[in-house]
Write the C-alpha cells for this entry.
Amino acid sequence: MKIMVCAQGAGLKKPYTKMAQDEYARRLTHYCEVSIVDVASRQLATYARFEEGVRVLLDPRGQELASHELAERLQDLMNMGTKKLSFFIGGPEGFNPLLQGYVQQNLTVRPLSPGPSVLSFGRLTLPHEFVRIILLEQLYRAFTILKGEPYDK
C-alpha cells in the first residue's frame, strides 16, 4: 500500500519537527511506501477531491479512532486490496473554503472507508506541523500492532 500525507503549506520550518517527521516516515518504509507532499491551499483542494484511492481529511470535527481501531481499518483496507491511502492536513486556519463543504458532507462516513472520510485526533487545537507527526506516528504504531511488534506496549 502507498500512503501519502498531503499538507497545506511550505513544509516544516523547525528542525525538530522535520527530524520527527523524517524519523517516522523512515520507520514506516518497513511496512509501506510513504510520500509527504506540501502544497498550496488550492492544490490541496484538488488533491483531496480528485486523488485516487481512499482519502482522509484530518479535521477536529471528524471521528476519533483509538490506535487499535486505526490498525483494524488499515488491515481492512489492505484486505480489500486498497493501493493508495491519502491523508490531507489543512493549514494553521484549517481547510480553505473549497474544502469546508467537502468536509461537512463526509463527517458521518466511517473513517478510512473507501472514498472520502474525515478523521480527528481530538478536539484539542494542535499546531498543524504536529498533526503530520502525530499522523505518521499513529500509522507506524498501527503497523506495529498489526505485525505484533513490541512498539505498542
